[in-house]
């Protein structure tokens, strides 16, 4: 009988194969709870459009069980099973029609698949959860292999219960984590690992755009030869061809995925990008720009300025993160691409004009992969829970015409603690991530050494 404990790569630091299975079972429980949390808003009755009754909107806010999945059942032709992008467009007032959704094409395809065999928003929520749950489990598996029991932060973390099925984010998180897994676990030359990782990041960008930002630090990691420059070509200071190959693979993947939709219905395909470019800073964006300048949001000049200021500051934060990574390269010999990616994400979350609640799922894997102090993690999760619950109850108070000011009760106070506490923590985490040790690095080195021994012993 083959002893699986001796199989190369089967045992991770503090995490056996049975431990990995246990981790995934715990993750499955959290995902079920995540679905149940959102399903509180469904039924018990349904109107002629398949919308839950009674009082769907009031319940969604009052009980903090709102999800974009259930909400978008109506208004994007999802309930009519229209194939996305091909037949639609955008009206002069910014409304989407004909199956167009405001997300990249692979997310639109997932939405269409989730609605294909259902007739109510409850069925759509359940079908979408079943489609996306395997991606959440895959993230658990990969994080467990990379960082051992730290993956519990993802598997049973509060954000998974709150946001796993708030929107269509589990597949895109899976693409980003899979890219890290490929780079740090596959035992093939760096160029080949980077090409596959870049394709995964390109697929992620075709789901939600954020993985595209990680292509630059990945390319810089390849350019400088990976860990300690050990995989540079002979007599070369930089691997320019490898870095350009990674960028080309990511861009090519995005083009290949988008091209059929652009050909089939260019107006509908373009409408999703136009919708996002027109999006204004308002309550739905939930960013520091709204909460800090909400009294100006009705001003046209302010909205125009935000269209320039926000992306410019995001790009500046990217540049600062990459320059810091280059400085660390000169000190350590390795470009810290995972740390730089995490810092870039912090800059994006803080400075972009949209900061939806479920974006915490994007950040959570970096808490697993990087050895930041537990105080940072606990504080961020507390602030996130405060914001993620109180924002909906605050909306309910406004809908009901009840007092909702900062002096009127704990709801508004918790909301401000969540919004500004989270913003302050993102500033600190930008620095903390850059200075953190990558948990995966040491474990990868030990795993490689152990794998070599196990090959010989087996």
Q: How would you portray this structure in words?
A:
With 458 residues, the protein is mostly helical. The protein has a domain at 83-98 and 169-279. The protein contains 19 helices and 4 strands. It has helices spanning 17-39, 56-62, 68-71, 105-115, 121-147, 152-155, 158-163, 170-185, 190-205, 215-223, 240-264, 266-278, 288-293, 300-332, 337-351, 360-369, 374-399, 410-435, 439-457; strands at 45-46, 52-53, 89-90, 96-97. The protein has a two-stranded antiparallel sheet with strand order 1-2. A two-stranded antiparallel ribbon has the order 3-4. A hairpin with a 5-residue loop joins strand 3 (89-90) and strand 4. Residues 1-12 and 442-458 have low confidence and may be disordered. Its main location: membrane.
Please render the helix and strand layout as text:
Blueprint lengths: L16 H23 L5 E2 L5 E2 L2 H7 L5 H4 L17 E2 L5 E2 L7 H11 L5 H27 L4 H4 L2 H6 L6 H16 L4 H16 L9 H9 L16 H25 L1 H13 L9 H6 L6 H33 L4 H15 L8 H10 L4 H26 L10 H26 L3 H19 L1
Helix pairs in contact: 1-5, 2-17, 4-5, 5-8, 8-9, 9-10, 9-11, 10-11, 10-15, 11-12, 14-15, 15-16, 15-18, 17-18
Subcellular location: Cell membrane
Organism: Saccharopolyspora cebuensis
InterPro entries: GT87 (IPR018584), UCP010361 (IPR016570)
Q: Quick recap of the structure?
A:
With 458 residues, the protein is mainly alpha-helical. The protein has helices at residues 17-39, 56-62, 68-71, 105-115, 121-147, 152-155, 158-163, 170-185, 190-205, 215-223, 240-264, 266-278, 288-293, 300-332, 337-351, 360-369, 374-399, 410-435, 439-457, and strands spanning 45-46, 52-53, 89-90, 96-97. The strands form 2 sheets. It has a two-stranded antiparallel ribbon.
């Amino acid at each position: 009988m083959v002893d699986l404990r001796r199989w190369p790569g089967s045992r991770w630091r503090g995490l056996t194969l049975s431990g990995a299975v246990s981790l995934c079972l715990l993750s499955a429980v959290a995902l079920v709870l995540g679905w149940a949390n959102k399903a509180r808003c469904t039924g018990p009755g349904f109107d002629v459009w398949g919308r839950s009754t009674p009082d769907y909107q009031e319940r969604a806010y009052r009980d903090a069980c709102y999800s974009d999945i259930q909400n978008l059942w109506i208004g994007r032709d999802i309930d009519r099973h229209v194939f996305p992008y091909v037949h639609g467009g955008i009206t002069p007032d910014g409304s989407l029609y004909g199956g167009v959704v405001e997300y990249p094409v692979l997310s639109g395809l997932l939405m269409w698949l989730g609605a294909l065999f259902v007739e109510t928003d409850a069925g759509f929520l359940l079908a979408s959860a079943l489609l996306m749950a395997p991606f959440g489990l895959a993230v658990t598996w990969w994080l467990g292999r990379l960082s051992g029991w730290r993956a519990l932060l993802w598997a049973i973390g509060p954000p998974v219960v709150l946001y796993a099925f708030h929107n269509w984010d589990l597949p895109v998180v899976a693409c980003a984590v899979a890219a890290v897994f490929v780079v740090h676990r596959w035992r093939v030359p760096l160029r080949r690992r980077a090409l596959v990782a870049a394709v995964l990041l390109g697929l992620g960008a075709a789901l939600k755009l954020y993985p595209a930002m990680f292509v630059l630090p990945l390319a810089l990691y390849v350019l400088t030869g990976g860990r300690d420059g050990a995989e540079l070509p002979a007599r070369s200071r930089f691997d320019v061809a490898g870095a350009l190959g990674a960028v080309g693979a990511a861009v090519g993947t995005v083009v290949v995925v988008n091209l059929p939709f652009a050909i089939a219905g260019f107006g509908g395909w373009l409408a999703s990008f136009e919708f996002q470019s027109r999006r204004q800073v308002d309550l739905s964006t939930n960013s520091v720009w709204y909460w800090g300048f909400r009294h100006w949001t009705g001003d046209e000049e302010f909205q125009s300025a935000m269209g320039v200021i926000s992306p410019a500051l995001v790009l500046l934060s990217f540049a600062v993160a990459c320059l810091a990574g280059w400085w660390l390269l000169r000190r350590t010999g390795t470009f810290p691409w995972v740390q730089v990616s995490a810092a870039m994400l912090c800059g994006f979350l803080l400075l972009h004009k949209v900061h939806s609640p479920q974006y915490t799922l994007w950040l959570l894997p970096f808490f697993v992969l990087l050895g930041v102090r537990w105080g940072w993690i606990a504080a961020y999760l507390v602030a996130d829970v405060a914001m993620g619950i109180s924002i909906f109850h605050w909306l309910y108070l406004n809908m009901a015409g009840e007092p909702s000011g900062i002096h009127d009760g704990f709801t508004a106070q918790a909301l401000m603690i969540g919004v500004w506490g989270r913003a302050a923590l993102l500033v600190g985490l930008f620095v903390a991530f850059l200075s953190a040790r990558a948990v995966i690095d040491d474990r990868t080195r030990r795993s490689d050494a152990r794998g070599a021994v196990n090959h010989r012993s087996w």
